[in-house]
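Risk mitigation, structural track. In case the binding assays with iron/sulfur cluster fail to produce interpretable data, a predicted complex structure has been prepared as a fallback.
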Amino acid sequence: MSKSSRGLGHELLDESLQGSPTVVSSHPTHTKKLYLESYGCQMNYSDSEIVASILDEAGFATTRNSDEADLILLNTCAIRENAEQRVRSRLRQFKSAKAERPHLVVGVLGCMAERLKESLLEQEKLVDLVVGPDAYRDIPNLVKQVEGGQKAVNVLLSREETYAEISPVRLDSNGVTAFISIMRGCDNMCSFCVVPFTRGRERSRDPKSIVREAHELFEAGYREVTLLGQNVDSYKWNLDNKGQVKDPNQPVVRFAELMEKVAAVQPDLRIRFSTSHPKDMTDDVLHVMAKHENICKYIHLPVQSGNSDVLKRMNRGYTREWYMDRMAAIRRIMPKCAISTDIMTGFCGETDAEHEDTLSLMREIRYEMAYMFKYSERPKTLAERKYENDVPEETKSKRLQEIMELQRENGTARTLAMKGKTYRVLVEGTSKKRDDQFFGRNTHNAVVVFPKGDAKPGTYVNVQTLDCTPATLIGEITLEEADA
Ligand code: 5AD
Ligand code: SF4
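Fallback model:
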């Protein structure tokens, strides 16, 4: 699956949890082969590109075929229990492969590393190597340690590591769209969320290295970058956690200023970002978006619940009213901005009435797109320690169905409203269903397919949309001016 086919949400659609193998070039001097599989969010896919770069330096070429690999790494996700189960069953498959090829090294990276290091290494003996998200520079040493007959672990979290100067190897790339990681970790402590424990404290990457990466991508033919962070609205450079300037001789850069800088790289380089946090999203950011045509008019703004008491238990830091105020600001500053969200159903103590509030909020906002989940209790989190996971599984499923049904209606209505309009579309590649058609996206992140004509991937065309399915616009290239 190419990355371009993925949604923009922090967490990917469930299909992505199956993991996807990745391939890089086979370098002539590289004697060893790495097979790397990634699970979870875009941040994890972006991290895999850093890992591939570190291992490229250490002489590993990447392969798509696990049978020919010397090193197999799974970059894992811990956000919900089912994500972890998938990884475990995959590891059991590789354990049998190891029985046949004893020299094979198998390792776990990412969010499952810290918590499961003992059970994966010692009890179940599924892996040789466990590496947490801040220790990727150590992988070549750790692999050597394993080759010397030892098990190897490094799950230390860091307050500084941002891999700022490492040029990621673009894996599975369409050559048109790419991710740029702008920060790591998270300080929010939402009560349901394992991320602060798996990825550690929040830290922002040097804006110079971010802008440089955007330039390099443009030079290499890329035309869209997605700035990634767990909470991009709290990006800050040269400010400490109390908001004090660290170095008076250096400029302060917040997310709005960072976007200005990246938008200035090239007018033909589109910018997206993910994920925004309703408590931190300022009007400044919205004004910068409105001002620059190359910043896409699309915001992923996870709400989680439409009820203020549930939001309080979730420790989200905002109420329903606050969220609706942020929505009003978006509509005021960018009337045509598309909005997507994450919704979690069946959180501890959620009543029918509280669930109804989520449905009513969805009816009010009419999201273009939503990623919807059943609450899954995660170890160490505040919710695990403080609340009972007391909503029965059938109730969670029933509520999730209701939410998904409503979103289907909203999403379809939203796509229908785009029918007949003309959009500027960045051509990403050949449509999966039809060889004679291209697909791309409009500014609102809606997928558009159209006959290829003379267009080329990595260029912009205006497409008039003639028809649609619930999630895709169907159109043809036109010389007419675009509506958006
Ligand atoms: N259970 C279910 N969904 C979760 N998410 C985060 N933690 C959990 C959990 N424990 C969802 C939230 C978040 C998205 C990335 O995943 O909706 O925004
Ligand atoms: Fe991404 Fe880790 Fe969170 Fe999974 S647990 S969604 S990989 S940050």
